[in-house]
Request: fold
Amino acid sequence: MGKIGFLEKIKKGLARTRNVLTSDLDDLILGERVLDKELFDEIEELLITADMGPQFAHDVITDIQEKVSRKELKNAQEIKKILRARMTEILRRVEKPLHITKGNPFVIMVIGVNGSGKTTTIGKISGQLIKEGHEVLLAAGDTFRAAAIEQLEVWGKRVGAPVVKQKINADPAAVAFDAMGKIKAGYHGVLLIDTAGRLHTRVNLMEELKKVKKVISRELAGAPQEVLLVLDATTGQNAVIQAKMFKEDIGVTGIILTKLDGTSKGGVVLRIASELALPVRYIGVGEGMEDLRGFTAEEFVAAILDE
Ligand SMILES: Nc1nc2c(ncn2[C@@H]2O[C@H](COP(=O)(O)OP(=O)(O)O)[C@@H](O)[C@H]2O)c(=O)[nH]1
Ligand SMILES: [Mg+2]
Reply:
């Protein structure tokens, strides 16, 4: 899919977020609005409605107020420029696409709650990496459901990547150990390890993931090079709460935000950026192989703010 096609797709998905920030904001700032506290409060509320989070909204308003007091802001229309600049600035900080060099084993552990899009995203990443000439090996670490193992195998067949697996209910750490064995035997491509997202309790899940991670690093120093957290953008604020939890318990090196197609909660990426400071590696805008894209601030801001 070309650049335009992808941008159109994100724009379509983010239409509700964009409406708040274009029409509703325009209604507020058009005409001879006085730059007073009442207006600032209304704008702050609007940013929160777009799911950008209280922190970001507060920062934007502080920025506007400072500019007003320094007499740098002449009319209300300029507020939109400030918003754009601020969004871009914050999102640039998390614009850190994943770079994988060839020739050395690169282990990626993929974590996140059930249904967030882990397995699908692993399939998409694999397809793209293989297209770029990488070797890809998959490990079916979600042994909680038989369907999860089959789903990964379907993707493996589709993209041409072998899958290391065991039976349902097998120890995921044992699956990871098997996969790491391939690396010890000389495999030097990318290894993507799928994991479960739902166990009986949070403690259970986190203990399982920690064990998987421990096995990986025991078998290869410096691995996993990447722990990717997959978050469902449609869950808005919940995604932020999940991110905090996984970051604390497991350690996360990057985020993938899925399902940006068809949500009004796309502003959540700003919350993730300002409250968690974790790199956003990819965004997902659909179920197909091509519907995954490296995250760029410019593209995202255009999708949210441009008509
Ligand atoms: N619309 C949309 N659906 C997605 C996206 N990513 C994943 N899905 C769907 O979300 C559902 C759950 O995905 P899955 O990979 O099984 O999640 P997992 O439980 O975390 O492994 C599936 O129906 C996927 O096709 C996305 O970016 N957009
Ligand atoms: Mg899965």
